[in-house]
Design a protein that fits this description.
Blueprint lengths: L3 H13 L1 H10 L5 H15 L7 H15 L2 H14 L3 H14 L2 H19 L4
């Protein structure tokens, strides 16, 4: 089995981009280094690096879960990452429609607000 830490960092950079990962890595301290290693290995090296779902599919599930749980800072980061996973604005909209039905309109409403802001920044247009 390949080293999931190396694969994790490769996948993390592919999804989130070098600039984001470089910022996160430079902010790492002795205190949180073991935690950062754990999430790079488990989340990025195992879950995100799996071959059953595409990165686009993983993006949709991740966005829906983050919005449903109210983890809006991570949600915003993953909206930005969709440009690298092949997810479209329509994909994001459909994921958030599911959030509205299955997790509640307030969560979806806040997520739509964040997604509109991020997508507008990314496209330079008003949504």
């Amino acid at each position: 089995m390949p080293d999931s830490s190396n694969k994790g960092m490769e996948t993390r950079r592919a999804v989130l981009g070098d600039a984001h990962v470089d910022r996160a890595e430079s902010a790492k301290t002795d205190f949180d280094a073991p935690f950062q290693s754990m999430i790079t290995d488990a989340a990025w090296g195992q879950v995100w690096s799996g071959d059953h779902w595409t990165k686009r599919e993983r993006s949709m599930v991740t966005l829906a879960l983050l919005a449903a749980l109210g983890h809006y800072e991570e949600f915003e980061m993953h909206v930005r990452a969709t440009i690298r996973t092949g997810a479209t604005m329509e994909d994001i909209r459909e994921a958030l429609m599911h959030v509205g039905i299955y997790a509640g309109v307030p969560h979806a409403n806040q997520a739509f607000k964040i997604a509109k802001k991020v997508l507008s920044e990314m496209e330079g247009d008003s949504l």
